[in-house]
């Protein structure tokens, strides 16, 4: 069932990965930077430290998520937008967002529900976009 690596569309994976990564930049730096900072207990105008991990970490995780989604789609033989979006929603809400909420509810997050809403929304939308692109390409 999971002998599908040869069936993966690497162009689709590349496009999905780029879209997910760009969405993250737009989401956290453009749309919700102040709210995201508040969720972490920071000044709303705080800027992140420009470390190598800050720049490399999110794209690497987007790549892993995109490849994993492509493997699941190939193994499950998902070829329609409806099925792709269903999988994207399940992965986005059922794995990515649920795990985000679980991480956020520890005592180190001053506003865990705000953090979960911002990060969870990004994960659900990103997963839907990746799945739609993988079906399209």
List keywords for this structure.
137 residues; single chain; mainly alpha; elongated
Task: Please give a quick description of this structure.
This protein is an all-alpha fold. The protein has one domain (5-136).
- Rg result: 16 Å
Major sheet: size, sense and barrel closure? none
User: Could you give the distance between the termini?
Assistant: 22 Å
Give the ordered list of helices and strands.
Answer: HHHHH
* Portion in helices: over 70%
User: What do the pLDDT scores average to?
Assistant: 95
Count of discrete structural domains: 1
By secondary-structure content and strand pairing, the structural class works out as mainly alpha
Low-confidence stretches: none
Q: Give the overall form.
A: elongated
- Strand coverage percent: under 5%
Q: List the total number of helices.
A: 5
Total count of strands: 0
Structure characterization notes:
- There is one protein chain.
- The protein is mostly helical.
- The chain has one domain.
- The chain has helices at residues 10-31, 33-39, 52-75, 81-104, 112-136.
Write the layout of secondary structure elements.
Layout: H1 10-31, H2 33-39, H3 52-75, H4 81-104, H5 112-136
Helix pairs in contact: 1-3, 1-5, 2-5, 3-5, 4-5
